Amino acid sequence: MNKLLKHLILIDGLSILYRAYYAFPCLSNSKGEPTGAIFGFINILKNIINQYKPSHIAVIFDSYSKTFRNKIFDDYKCNRLPMPNHMRIQIEPLYEIILAMGLKIIQVNGVEADDVIGTLVHKWCNKLDIFILINSNDKDMAQLVKPNVNIIDNTTKTILGPDDIKKKYGVAPELIVDLLAIMGDSSDNIPGIPKIGKKTALILIKELGNIESIYSNINKISFMSFRGAKNTAIRLNKYREIAFLSYKLAKIKTDVIVNVEYEDLIINHINIIKLKKLFNRYEIKSF
Length: 287
Known about the structure:
Blueprint: E1 6-12, H1 13-23, H2 36-52, E2 56-60, H3 68-72, H4 85-88, H5 91-100, E3 104-106, H6 113-124, E4 130-135, E5 149-153, E6 158-160, H7 162-169, H8 176-183, H9 198-208, H10 211-216, H11 218-221, H12 229-238, H13 240-250, H14 272-282
Parallel strand pairs: 1-2, 1-4, 2-3, 4-5
Antiparallel strand pairs: 5-6
């Protein structure tokens, strides 16, 4: 990470919120108000700021309305349990704390945080003096990685660039969407092609390229040397529509209308009085 560049960190708020909540599910203040998600989120945020020292930062949350993905596929993310109520009631006070810390919150109606992050990356990734870090646990974020756009791996506490993504997933960042379109993604209930897993998907991509190229060369697949090649060709033909639907679901939008300029994300002065009041109420000892 080049220390001479301005560092922008884009945080997937809901991803961090879930991590924080399940790390401290039973934490509450003396009034019995749940505080685990707030406490965990603020500590994660503090560690990110202290470790990476960004000049600009934004916390992006999902829209609470249905998105375009729900409109094209009713079962999108239908396998996920509803947000626990004890977690939900901590969101508004958490927003207050984040804003009092001088940080920007972004939420755009009708799209997911991924799409807002993708749009901001697309908007600023060609600026030579900016290095962008994305903090998220979602594997589909890997499609956004470039030499100057990296992901913070929260498990290993390392930064993943293009070579790291290829090592981790078996394909370069620009082919992540194609991989998910073929093999599916159970975490988002993206169907993919039935009975074609990661191993076969990687073979197809390695030999033929992206999903468009795979379908353009579908007649070659039956003659390929891997086990089950003929059945794979049959399945690709049979589930063509599902494959391209899955591609649309996995593809992060980069053209969302986000009324934010780069300088809006400069870390502002902390509102000490408001932050102290909120910390006292939720019994957060320090920041």
